[in-house]
Every structure is written in structure tokens, then in C-alpha cells.
Amino acid sequence: MTTQLDTPITPDQSERRRIGGLIIGSALLAAVGVGALAYTATNAAFTGVTDGAVGNFGAATVSITEDDFGGVPFTAADMLPGESVSSCILVTYTGSGVPSQPTSGLRLYATPAPAGDLADNLQLTITHRGASTTCASAAAANPVYSSDFELFPTGYGTGASGFLPTAAGQSVAYDFTVTLEAATLDEAQGDTATATFFWEVRSN
Length: 204
Hints:
- By secondary structure, this protein is an alpha+beta fold.
- It is built from 1 helix and 8 strands, in the order H-E-E-E-E-E-E-E-E.
- It is elongated.
- The protein starts with 10 loop residues before the first helix and ends with a strand.
């Protein structure tokens, strides 16, 4: 039996097949590229965003003023045993934010501590006339402090409680009375004492 061989592939035919394969490969790559572009395009979207809402914030003020005993120093000279002297001072709330109640309010203290050789012979009584009062208002005696002059508190934490402000511009009149004890001994003659009082208010 005679076996018939396949027709030999000439160099030109082999080259054409190789080139044909490259052409097909290029076509496939091109098709893949088109598909990728189409995928990206179909997943694009329009979006909408608001202009934005602006918020502005400011801290409240919590402050008070006092009139330094009406501009006249609270002094007393030549006091005799058992004698008392009094004066009034007006405190006004000037803040914009009202402190929360009832845990906040005005406190009164002296810094530094009351000093002087006569301090241990003096009694101090402080009362206030209520909210929205002046030194010309009727003297309602709301107690604030009544004890030894030298033991007056020296800080906010232990300060004597005053009124709780309920509105900006609200004022209260405080009455101070200092008494030289009746049992003061002769050796105290010529002695002096002094104190600087402060009012402080906190928001909470």
C-alpha cells in the first residue's frame, strides 16, 4: 500500500498562518478593550450635592459687676465695743447666658483672708434684699453670712451663697454690718482689720 503524504507546507503558507494568528489575537484584544470601555461608561452616574448649611456658634458670657460700696470705701474708725457700722453694695449680673439653676449662682468670699489684729474681735453679718433690688429698695434681710469676721470664706467652693441670677441686667443689693464685740478687751485699742470681698458667678 502506498501512503500519500500531506501536501508539504511551504514557507509562505507557514508565515501566513502565523500572521493570521496574530491578527486574530489583535482582534480579540481589541474586543476586550471595547468591552472594558463599555463597562466603564455604563457604570457612570450623575450626582447631586446640597450647597451646605452653615452653622455659627458663640459662647455665652457669665459676668457680674459691683459698685464698690457706692464708690465710698467701707471704713470705720474709733469703733467702741458693741458698736456696729453698715454699708450697702449693689451687684449686677451682666452676662448673656443665664447660669443653670439651682446648682449655680453667686458666691461671695474674701481673698486674701481677713487680716489685722482686730479681726478676731469683729462679727460680720451680710444679707441681701432679693433679686432686682437696689440700695434704695426696702431692706429685706435674706441671710448670706453671720459669723466671725476672720472666718469669712476665702474661695468660691466655700463661699457664701448669694442670689441666683435669672436674667441679664438683674441686680441685688447686699448689706454689710460689722460689729465690734462688746467683750473686746482694752488691749485691742487702736487695732485695725481689713478684707477685700469678691463676688463670683459660674455657669454650672
